[in-house]
Design goal:
The chain is an alpha+beta fold. It contains nine helices and 29 strands. The N and C termini lie far apart (99 Å).
Length: 473
């Protein structure tokens, strides 16, 4: 039978690979000619990958796909040469009568495809961006929110495999999920003016304290309060711990500065408290420090301790209120944006001074006869009443916001032991502390001895006023 005779290593007629007829060609010479004008992607051929609306260009091999031309040639050469003599005879007869197409198979390296998915995730994953109300040039404008995108890594291998099975034709589309922003522009409808803004200085603050203030401000910045909604500082800012990124900075404990995690949180709460007052919002919860702090006037502070003391205020307007907070040029600025017109309010402080108690004398055997050593200076106490009143023409009456008591502290003096008598027992701890723990005093701001003159200074200062056109910078 002639058809079963020696074929001299040639492909049988009408056997096609990659669109080329290999019939009559010798096995050893056919491979090179297939790459000339044949639609077989090479490892380094460029591929367009679509990730959402973005495009990414890479080499075919980066996707994990490769084409096995050698495998296709082996299958083509096997036509008419495998199986029983009868089957070989039938395939050789058929090759003269009809065309046999052999596809070049594409394989996918799973490990490389998964690494490709991780690279796309790093490059293209993005969190949604909330819509924001921002102040620019004294005017408030609302920016639109942007959806987030996530490459679905566990589905990338299947997407690449399906694309390879189709011959790698067209773009390789990655499976992605879109997530909408929490705050959309619709939620900010009606926000068109700065209700109130206020700033406080960070001068003298350590790097760690500035970091803490900026971190807390970032948590507050961009928050939206719907009509009737209550803002909770502790809920929004969260715990001030090392795990949440806060650093060690001075805090006030029993009237003294000590190292603690999250120092600086109270400067933000105090600044935000005053802005809320000037915006006319309803204060739901607020506590003052046990002693005055230097970054704001007595009666205008708001101490916060996670899980114990919180600052809360309610949006009592008919429109959304947007909060803005940032650290810039050595100052902390807070602003409340809402629907106009802005209220024209001012805060009035009525301050009374309370003399400290008699000095506390502690006998100290280590002192020379007649020697005295001041261990803690006397600090006068304060009683401060804060009123909020309108500055509009013809308006009368004022609302009492708070009446705060800052306990005085007595002078503590160590004295030598009298030479004629026995040593008297030392007195108990200094009065004037109430056990309150209040984070937030900067390292250069003193809440202990010597603060009396600082606290008493400026008691007759002008009222604090609100309704600015733009946030203080």
């Amino acid at each position: 039978m002639a058809l079963l005779a020696d074929d001299h290593g040639q492909f049988f007629p009408n056997v096609f690979v990659a669109g080329k007829n290999l019939g009559g060609m010798e096995r050893g010479s056919v491979r090179g000619c297939l790459f000339i004008g044949a639609p077989i992607p090479a490892d380094d051929d460029p591929v367009t990958v679509k990730v959402g609306v973005a495009s990414h260009r890479c080499a075919l091999k980066e996707t994990g796909v490769s084409f096995s031309l050698d495998q296709a040639l082996e299958r083509a050469y096997a036509v008419g040469r495998t199986g029983s003599p009868l089957r070989q005879f039938a395939e050789r007869i058929a090759s003269y009568l009809r065309r046999t197409d052999i596809a070049v198979p594409a394989g996918v390296d799973a490990a490389r495809a998964n690494a490709f998915a991780e690279e796309l995730t790093r490059r293209f994953d993005r969190a949604p961006v909330d819509a924001r109300a921002e102040v620019e040039g004294g005017a408030v404008h609302v920016t639109s929110g942007q959806p987030g995108l996530k490459v679905v890594g566990e589905e990338v291998l299947e997407a690449v495999s399906a694309w390879a099975r189709g011959g790698c034709r067209g773009e390789l589309r990655m499976p992605v999920r879109f997530t909408g922003p929490t705050v959309t522009a619709d939620r900010l409808q009606g926000v068109d003016i700065v209700l109130a803004s206020l700033s406080t200085s960070l001068a003298g603050s350590s790097r760690n304290r500035r970091h803490n203030v900026a971190l807390a401000a970032a948590a507050v910045d961009g928050r939206i309060l719907a009509p009737g909604e209550v803002f909770s500082y502790n809920r929004v800012v969260g715990p001030r711990t090392e795990e949440t990124g806060y650093r060690t900075a001075p805090v006030i404990v029993h009237g003294k500065l000590v190292p603690g995690t999250g120092g600086g949180a109270c400067q933000l709460s105090s600044t935000l408290y005053q802005a809320a007052l000037l915006a006319g919002l309803e204060i739901v919860a607020r506590s003052h420090h046990s002693h005055p702090v230097a970054y704001t006037k007595a009666g205008l502070d708001a101490t916060v301790v996670y899980g114990a003391m919180d600052l809360k205020f309610r949006n009592n307007t008919q429109h959304p209120v947007a909060l803005a907070a940032h650290v810039r040029n050595g100052r902390l600025a807070c602003a409340l944006l809402g629907h106009g017109p802005a209220p024209r309010l001012e805060l009035v402080r009525e301050v009374g001074k309370i003399a400290p108690p008699e000095p506390q004398l502690i006998e100290d055997a280590d002192l020379a006869p007649g020697e005295r050593k001041v261990e803690a200076a006397a600090v006068s106490g304060l009683r401060v009443r804060v009123l909020r009143r309108s500055r509009q023409a013809g308006a009368s009456g004022a609302q009492v916001i708070s009446t705060d008591y800052y306990a005085p502290r007595r002078e503590v003096v160590r004295v030598s032991v009298p030479s004629t008598g026995g040593q008297a027992p030392a007195e108990a701890a200094c009065e004037g502390t109430d056990g309150e723990v209040a984070a937030g005093a900067p390292g250069a701001l003193r809440a202990g001895p010597g603060e009396d003159s600082r606290a008493a200074a400026g008691l007759a200062a002008a009222p604090v006023r609100g309704g600015q056109k733009k946030p203080a910078r």
